[in-house]
Amino acid sequence: MQKDTQKATRREFLKISGKVAGAAILSGLPGTHSQAASALPAVSAEKRVQIIRSIMKKAKAVVGPDFPIIIKINSDDIVPQGIQPDTFPFLAQEVVNTGVDALDISGNNPIVKDIEHIEDESYFFDGASRLDVNVPIILTGGNRSVSHMEKLLKTNEIEFLGVARPLIREPDLPKRWLLGTADDRATCISCNECFRAVMYGETAYCILDI
Ligand SMILES: Cc1cc2nc3c(=O)[nH]c(=O)nc-3n(C[C@H](O)[C@H](O)[C@H](O)COP(=O)(O)O)c2cc1C
Ligand code: SF4
After folding, report:
1. Residue minimizing CA distance to atom 8 of ligand 2
2. Is the same domain home to 35 and 127?
3. Considering just the CA atoms, what is the radius of gyration of the chain in Å?
4. Is there an atom of ligand 1 within 6 Å of 21 CB?
5. 161 within ligand 2 shell (Cβ under 6 A)
6. Whether 58 and 86 share a structural domain
7. Would strands 137-140 and 102-106 be described as parallel, antiparallel, or unpaired?
8. pLDDT in tens, 25-48
9. Same domain, yes or no, for 59 and 157?
């Protein structure tokens, strides 16, 4: 984490991701399911974010107070006693209290397959839409259609949208969307084959059309 933080000063912001979101070790700590498994007594949300507070303190000491640190966090652990959209706002507030500059909302299964219909898109919206925090909210996961994304930005407190797999398939998509030369919907079919390459230590690539 310290190496990540030092490297981050060469970029424009630091994102603590894949460490608190998804199914990584840190992601289990803010939730309650890890405690249930170890039969420990219930611990307050404030204490559950202690490790994030400690990381934030060290990271801010390296990058300085004006350097934005974004945290990607699960809004839904999809396990009994884990973080769930209805209990997530309280935990998110505690995470914000640690000094993070923005929250990127994700979940325990961040890479959902087969997003075929508009109602399948933006699949962590439920957790994100319940937040009332004083830092920007980013929503990542299943953002596919410009029309749907614009509607989300106009009608909610969500300020930014994260897009991952569609950019593996079409890295120039944001530019073409801006120029109006791309279709409304990304052509990624959410098959997750690009993630398989990463599992084998390769650079991610889209398997369609090859
Ligand atoms: C090849 C690949 C690598 C990823 N690596 C990370 C990672 O290191 N950390 C992380 O938090 N999420 C990672 N993700 C998840 C994405 O950031 C994102 O949350 C997820 O793909 C859902 O967004 P999408 O529907 O736009 O793809 C990865 C996804 C893919 C496809
Ligand atoms: S392999 Fe291509 S189509 Fe499949 S999820 Fe990855 S980018 Fe999308």
Report:
1. 188
2. yes
3. 18
4. yes
5. no
6. yes
7. parallel
8. 455 556 554 444 444 445 677 788
9. yes
- Which atom of ligand 1 lies at the shortest distance from residue 165's CA? 27
Ligand 1 centroid vs 66 CA: distance in angstroms? 27
pLDDT of residue 78: 82
* Residue to mutate (ligand 2; options 170, 187, 189, 198; most atoms within 8 A of CB): 189
Ligand 2 atom with the shortest distance to the CA of 204: 6
What is the C-alpha separation between 52 and 1, in angstroms, rounded? 11
Does the structure show a pLDDT above 50 at 23? Answer: no
User: Which pLDDT band, with edges at 50, 70 and 90, does 81 fall under?
Assistant: confident
The tokens describing 158, both together, are: 């969500």
CA 39/CA 32 separation, integer angstroms:
11
Q: Which of 142, 162, 182 is the last residue of a domain?
A: 162
DSSP conformation class of 14: E
Give the pLDDT confidence score for residue 197 in this predicted structure.
86
Please work out whether the CB of residue 143 comes within 6 Å of at least one atom of ligand 1: yes
Domain enclosing residue 13, as ranges: 2-162
Total-model pTM: 0.86
Cβ(115) – ligand 2 distance below 6 Å: no
Same domain membership, residue 116 and residue 209 = no
For 136-188, what is each residue's pLDDT tens digit? 999 999 999 999 999 999 998 999 999 999 999 999 999 999 999 999 999 99
Measured in angstroms, how far is the CA atom of residue 22 from the centroid of ligand 1?
9
- Return the residue matching tokens 């300085």: 64
Ligand nearest to the CA of 144: 1
Residue 183 and residue 100 share a domain: no
